[in-house]
Amino acid sequence: MFFMDLAGSAIQWLVLVFVFTIGLAALFLVFLFIADRMQTGDAVRRNYPVIGRFRHLFITLGEFFRQYFFAMDREELPFNRAQREWIKRSADGRGNTIAFGSTRNISLPGTTLFVNAAFPPLDEQVTKTTPLVIGPNTRHPYAAQSIVNISGMSYGAISRPAVLALSRGAKEAGIWMNTGEGGLSPYHLEGGADIVFQIGTAKYGVRDDEGNLSDEKLRDVAAHEQVKMFEIKLSQGAKPGKGGILPGAKVTAEIAAIRDIPKGSDSISPNRHVEVDDWNGMLDLIGHIRTVTGKPVGFKTVVGSDVPFRELLDLIKERGIDCAPDFITIDGGDGGTGAAPMPLMDLVGLSVREALPILAKILREYGMKDQIRLIAAGKLVNPSDVAWALAAGAEFVTSARGFMFSLGCIQALKCNKNTCPTGITTHDARLQKGLVVQDKYLKVAHYAKGLTKEVETIAHSVGVSEPRQLKPHHVRIVQSDGNSVSMEHL
Ligand SMILES: Cc1cc2nc3c(=O)[nH]c(=O)nc-3n(C[C@H](O)[C@H](O)[C@H](O)COP(=O)(O)O)c2cc1C
Questions:
Q1: CATH number of 123-489
Q2: 415 Cβ inside 6 Å of ligand 1
Q3: Most buried among 224, 282, 365, 413, by the most CB within 10 A?
């Protein structure tokens, strides 16, 4: 009897709680209904109160779930699942051997195909990729070991553990790491890798009190044996004509000190080097930095057309080859960034696929291809991309986002928000815990080595003994009719 009474009152309580909850929910829905009807900013919510809210929710969730459930393997942008998975497998040190057949649609216009040799070199005939010297006539020429290297990402845009893992991974793999425009941090040096110091338009790390280039600071940076070259940033693919943007939330006390700027306020660099108005000024600046540092100096740029580069090469011819940059880094117009305005990201500058052959061609035309090394960046993250770039005329390839994927990036597209879920582009200590340097540096190294190895595999398959012997006639590009044309005829 006692138990029946107990059960009866429990049921009564449950019914009461249920009715109360339903009542509360109904009240809440009425509140939302009235709020949606009254507000004037959102037409869908005003016309379809409550239900209209789901649209926003689904759009937000779609951004996250599309990549898991809905997008096909080769569908997403900027990088599709097939590209990302290739990087993940090589970063994990797993082989990239697949079974049954390719899932790639090779009749799509723009697809790169390589021309296989009837009699490829025997395994014992292939040679290891040899170091290539940049700036042979400088006081400290740089014999760069690797074809594949890490592109500029500033400490600021990426986190302390990310910089550390990249620098240690770069050392392990024997590749260089570019500082990006945020100056040289202790974490760049800590790993022991070769460093390319980038001089952005704000001259972070090498500026005097007025923001001008300081020779004294340049000498200090150059004094580090690890710093092998200096790269002047003219423009970056994601935002040509616009300076760097580091949102205030990411300007910590340490980053502010390295950059010599106030803590917590947006770090915005000028949209170009204020002291350089033309190519003459650019060649003067290159010469000056080379004299002060004794190290190779080049510049990074986006290509819009061949015209400015013909002007540059004409000028070099006039002034003498000694004034030429030691290298030019071309960034594809669809390049990556920590933060950039959408119209510039989407619409300005040629992709590296178009830009690299243009620049390589005119360098050959002017007979300067051997003096000025070409470095290419812009979605060159898988073996076929790198092999294509070498055949198109690059001597080196660099990647930013490829190495971010090796660190565990999931393409959450949150680099500008300080909320990166993988700890790569955030200074939130809690999120950084996910990025364990001890583990990730090996992934960086595996990826660099795996990528190089498979570029070598492509090179051997087309019949040359090392990747830098790849030439345009080894590549065919699929046209709109589904047939391919040799790259040398394009
Ligand atoms: C998070 C992030 C930060 C970057 N910071 C810089 C920078 O400081 N300086 C620069 O020249 N490029 C910067 N870039 C551009 C890269 O160096 C590279 O040129 C571009 O992303 C294209 O290469 P990718 O397709 O391999 O990423 C940045 C890119 C990313 C994703």
A1: 3.20.20.70
A2: yes
A3: 282
